[in-house]
Amino acid sequence: MATIIERRPPRAAQRAKTGRSRVASIVWHVFCLALLALLLYPVAWLLGSSFKPGTEILTNMNVLPDAFTFDNYATVFEGVGGLSFWTMLGNSLLISTLAVVGNVFSCTLAAYAFARLRFRMRAPFFAFMLVTIMLPMHVVLIPQFIIFQQLGMIGTFLPLVLPKFLATEAFFVFLIVQFIKGIPRELDEAATIDGAGPYRTFGYVIFPLLTPALITTTIFSFIWSWDDFFSQLIYLNNPDTYTLQLGLRLFVDQTSASSFGPMFAMSVLAILPVVIFFAVFQRYLVDGVATSGLKG
């Protein structure tokens, strides 16, 4: 019987190979950490500058201040331009919450219609909806402003909230459509055999299975609505409706160098809800994108 002799590389070669892979791993981790530090430096500098006195912000480029002060945050909580910080925070939360509710409600219904129902011109309507994703917002800005102005909605939250209840966010419709297409049609057929119509099938069969896609829609809707500055600048001309984003703009009109401190402090407070929201729902965001057909 022939004996099969397994040739093994010498121990020196194995150690050299292990050493090279270990060095490559260390170099890769050092590169990632350096890139992370480069990306986080502006945020760290913003956080550190919020604790600097006004005279130190433009002279001290270090992340940490020479002397910590909480006067900037005290000035923010006192209000700016006669507006209360808590009022602006409440306005931002109200707009973002209504945007989330509107997108989840309307985009889910529209996606169910495109994915499951049969009606005339369904394919052209779906294609037209996808085309709107590629349109820059500046193309429709003036027509929308004229419409809302004629309806008397300028200066209220309606121009920012009402479109969300009309399924105008084509990205979320497409996201949920892709998810619904992954649900077996046998479930719909079983519901139909049991006497359920389209509404009951949606409410009792499809909707409970859309949790990952709905969570993804919720996260993106909140973050995009919270970070939106341009639309709020266009439609909100009443100081009582100002948000935190518009409140930051009030510091730009002041010429005193000490205004940079409160502006950075309010910037940190404006970023904090988004960071907390993303940190809490990060796992659901990854699961939702991975199971919604966006991975290809």
The main sheet comes to: none
State the assembly state of the protein chains: single chain
Provide the CATH superfamily of the largest domain. Answer: MetI-like
CATH architecture of the largest domain: Orthogonal Bundle
Strand content: under 5%
What would your notes on this structure say?
By secondary structure, this protein is mainly alpha-helical. Helix content is 69%, strand content 0%. The protein folds into 2 domains: 11-69; 73-290, MetI-like (MetI-like fold). The longest helix has 39 residues, at 11-49. Mean pLDDT is 83; it is low at 292-296.
Task: Describe the structure concisely.
With 296 residues, the protein is mostly helical.
Keywords:
MetI-like fold; 296 residues; 2 domains; mainly alpha; 0% strand; 69% helix; disordered C terminus
How does the SSE layout of this entry go?
Layout lengths: L10 H39 L4 H4 L13 H8 L6 H32 L5 H10 L5 H14 L7 H4 L8 H12 L3 H9 L4 H9 L4 H17 L2 H6 L8 H9 L7 H31 L6
